[in-house]
Amino acid sequence: MSRGRRALILIMLAVIGIVATVSSVHIFRRQPQPGPAIAGLASTPPLGWNSWNVFGCNIDEQRIERTAQAMVSSGMRDAGYRYVVVDDCWFDPRRNASGNCARTPPVFLTA
């Protein structure tokens, strides 16, 4: 094979390699298009705070109320955080007369 022909093949391979690289970079940089909204589904999961993660069973009404106020003052509410979940230890292990869970009286006074 002559030098000229070999040089031409190398140039063509280089051009093909460059085109393939540029094309693949362009393809992978494309942002995915968001799908259509589906009726009845939220765009985000429920956002909130859970007492168990921080306090475990060491909870009382004032601590939960201060946490909720901090969510508002820090801007979390405006960012979509809507829920304050009192996870555990809020109830008396015994059932009330109706058979339902009842709050632990010394912990939550204004229920």
From TrEMBL:
Catalyzed reaction equations: Hydrolysis of terminal, non-reducing alpha-D-galactose residues in alpha-D-galactosides, including galactose oligosaccharides, galactomannans and galactolipids
GO terms of molecular function: alpha-galactosidase activity
Pfam families in the cross-refs: Melibiase_2
Keywords tagged on the record: Disulfide bond, Glycosidase, Hydrolase
A GO BP entry: carbohydrate metabolic process
Enzyme Commission (EC) number: 3.2.1.22
InterPro entries recorded: Aldolase_TIM, GH, Glyco_hydro_27, Glyco_hydro_27/36_CS
PROSITE patterns, sorted: ALPHA_GALACTOSIDASE (PS00512)
Enzyme class per UniProt: hydrolase
Stated family: Belongs to the glycosyl hydrolase 27 family.
Protein name: Alpha-galactosidase
Gene source species: Mycobacteroides abscessus 21
